[in-house]
Amino acid sequence: MRYISTRGQAPSLSFEEAMLSGLARDGGLYVPEAIPQMSPEDIRALQGLSYEETAFRVMRPFVGDTFDDATFRDLIDRAYADFGHNARAPLKQLAPNHFLLELFHGPTLAFKDFAMQLIGQMFEHVLTRNGNRVTIVGATSGDTGSAAIEAFRGLEAVDVFILYPHGLVSEVQRRQMTTPAEANVHALAIDGHFDDAQARLKDMFNDFDFRDRVRLAGVNSINWARVLAQVVYYFTAAASLGAPDRKVSFTVPTGNFGDIFAGYVAKRMGLPIDRLVVATNQNDILHRCLTSGDYTKGEVVPSISPSMDIQVSSNFERALFYAYGQDGAAVAQLMDELKAGGFSVSQGALQALREDFASGRVSEEETSAMIRQAHATMGELLCPHSAIGVKVAEDKRDPAVPMVTLATAHPAKFPDAVEAASQIRPPLPKRMEDLYDRPERLTRVANDLKALETLIEERIAP
Ligand SMILES: *Cc1c(COP(=O)(O)O)cnc(C)c1O
């Protein structure tokens, strides 16, 4: 299995190389040269299997010869061993034909643990085998950073630097990043929004001298291995609701388009998915684009669902690549236009996108109202992101098709917003009760490429 760039100008790579490098050298994102297929029989055979066994069968064809079967099974088992629920991603019924896929039972209480825990295992295995060290730099709106730090803390072959927007993440998110005491963990609070952090990260990857000097590796949701790990729970959920003999739809609270793009990959592999519904907060570039074709950057307006406060949705590039018939030059052209502020999607590509994706936008007031209502009528305390998903799903769903809404974080990760909406303060799960008592460690940094690069090189100097 080879991986190619969405911009068509970078050499193809193996799974191992694509995982370690993150972003392609032409600025594009890696996608598999061909998407492996699962037959209806393959999918039927998933019913009743463990999460880990399903993960192995779904991901195996993508990893090529990077791991042998026994090693790959072992890495998957270790990745999910610390989850607080045996099903890993349990499904819960909310209403007739509407289900919640709980993706918050990992160590940092958000869905990003599914990919990050596995990536941590895969990196450690590959780097140890090759005798290499890497510097992982990530940008986060809160949850990626905590998940990455949790996955990489204390590993021998890795330094992990996480850029998060100063003052714009929740206290639980911040503490999950600033309290690990391991020397290889570096939490950097940047003066700016998430989009600034993400832009500086991309600048570092495009500074090839720096990139090579520090052996830069990325674990943001642009990393193909992360998308791949997220494909699995679309299969477990659909199989338990009757796939391949019954179609299922999914609603996904969306920011960077990574999680929902994993659903698109599942569909292209053969999983019978009817609709993939994008749910956004007031930062609604994706909803605007899917309704009008206009992808113009706006100002980020901070919301009570901060993990979706994004105006440039990195993984959308992958969806555009397929919507444009895998034409890398067309994608490169759009991304050039984006640098100048935005682009408009061609009619043909927009039609292609709409065959798979629907979308909805939820205001701040509606988000709070949904948290309140879900608690009162469904007995479910939702985090603000998940509430946005449930709201869009309730508004858009076809009652005849089972709808699965992805619950992307535990309510206790956003206790202030949940309490303001519902008057209930969700407690942290027992295993992280002392989070508020642990000492914090962080470095403030300017929104400046050179300053960041200097800091990183100083910190990793032997
Ligand atoms: C990251 C995140 C999202 C958005 O996921 P994307 O893959 O960026 O679309 C939604 N909800 C929560 C809680 C998150 O942490």
TrEMBL record:
Reactions this protein catalyses: O-phospho-L-homoserine + H2O = L-threonine + phosphate
EC number, as in UniProt: 4.2.3.1
Pfam families given in the database record: PALP, THR4_C, Thr_synth_N
Highest taxon of the lineage: Bacteria
Residues recorded with modification N6-(pyridoxal phosphate)lysine: 112
GO BP of this protein: threonine biosynthetic process
Tryptophan synthase beta chain-like PALP domain sequence ranges: 101-331
Cofactor list: pyridoxal 5'-phosphate
Gene3D superfamilies documented for this protein: 3.40.50.1100, Threonine synthase, N-terminal domain
All residue ranges annotated as the Threonine synthase N-terminal domain in the record: 2-80
Keywords per UniProt: Amino-acid biosynthesis, Lyase, Pyridoxal phosphate, Threonine biosynthesis
Pathway: Amino-acid biosynthesis; L-threonine biosynthesis; L-threonine from L-aspartate: step 5/5
GO molecular function: pyridoxal phosphate binding; threonine synthase activity
Family named by the database record: Belongs to the threonine synthase family.
PANTHER family documented for this protein: THREONINE SYNTHASE FAMILY MEMBER, THREONINE SYNTHASE-LIKE 2
Protein name listed in UniProt: Threonine synthase
Species for this entry: Citreimonas salinaria
